[in-house]
Amino acid sequence: ALNMSRILLSATLVGTTVLVAPAYAAEVTCDCAAPLPLPPSNTLGAPFKVSPWTGPYVGVTFALVNNSVHQSENGPGNWPAAYGQRYADNYSATAGRVGFHAGYMAQRGAAVFGVETDVGKLLGSESHVGQVPGADRFRPSWDASARLRAGVVTGNTLLYGTGGISFAKVNLKLDDLSAGSNTHVGWTAGVGADVLLTEKLIGRIETRYTDYGDENYQTTYGPIRMGYDEKRVALGLSYKF
Q1: Whole-model pTM?
Q2: Which secondary-structure segment (H or E) carries 195?
Q3: Among 148, 195, 207, 163, which residue's Cα sits nearest to residue 53?
Q4: How far apart are CA 30 and CA 227, in angstroms?
Q5: Fewer CB in 10 Å around end: N or C, the chain?
């Protein structure tokens, strides 16, 4: 009887092990081959959960520029009578401009701060013509600026203001008889919007006003003081590193 009990107990243990082992193995086994779902990638124009504005960038802009020129005064010299009021009134001209810019931005929450420099050149043969018929020319050959930028992020757009110091190299020519050049130094300020097109490409629209101040030009007739200001609307594209 004792041997028979032992046999029945052993058979029961073996049967239980055979039934439970597959069920336990099924519980601890996971389907590790199934990949976890990835978040959707950003598409053109889609808002970024975290706007990656911090970092250096470079870019190009195309602008329409309107320059307004004025004469402050003629200095001592042998000036023809017609030149007395030659530039008394402002006169202006509009031209295209291509420019290049580079800068750095740092983001703190929704606020973005940065610095930027740019340099550009007018396109075509635009020039300013004086009131008296002749070959008068007052033409900036290049311009540049160094500016601070500050703005706020909304979605994937940065709304900003900018301002700083401006420079321009100007050539002056009077009646094919006298010529001079000078470097103007002034100030510039404006507003704009940068839009994240992708994680690396930034689109831009900007408007700025620049006052390049007055400078003295030494000519054949004597010194003359000239100045000009500029209004600009620009579209740009930047690449962020």
Answers
A1: 0.73
A2: strand 178-196
A3: 195
A4: 78
A5: N
**Length of the chain, please?**
241
- Please report the pLDDT score of residue 143 as a whole number: 96
pLDDT score recorded for residue 145: 98
Mapped onto helix, strand or coil, the DSSP state of residue 211 is strand
Q: How much is the pLDDT for 93? A: 80
| DSSP conformation class of 48 | P
Residue entry with tokens 């002749």: 134
pLDDT, tens digit, for every residue of 7-50? 444 544 444 444 444 444 444 454 555 555 555 544 555 554 44
pLDDT of 8? 43
Q: How many angstroms separate the CA atoms of 52 and 113, rounded?
A: 13
Buried b (16+ CB within 10 A) or exposed e, 4-35: eeeeeeeeeeeeeeeeeeeeeeeeeeeeeeee
Residue 63 makes CB contacts below 8 A (sequence gap 6+) with 96, 97, 98, 99, 120, 232, 233, 234, 235
- Beta partners for 216? 225
What are the φ/ψ torsions at residue 21 (nearest 5 degrees)? -55, -45
Q: Do strands 55-74 and 222-240 pair parallel, antiparallel, or not at all (unpaired)?
A: antiparallel
- The C-alpha atoms of residue 116 and residue 236 are separated, in whole angstroms, by 14
Q: What is the pLDDT of residue 80?
A: 63
Alpha carbon distance, N-terminus to C-terminus of the chain: 87
Residues 143-166 have a mean pLDDT of 97
Answer positive or negative: Cα dihedral of 92, 97, 102, 106: positive
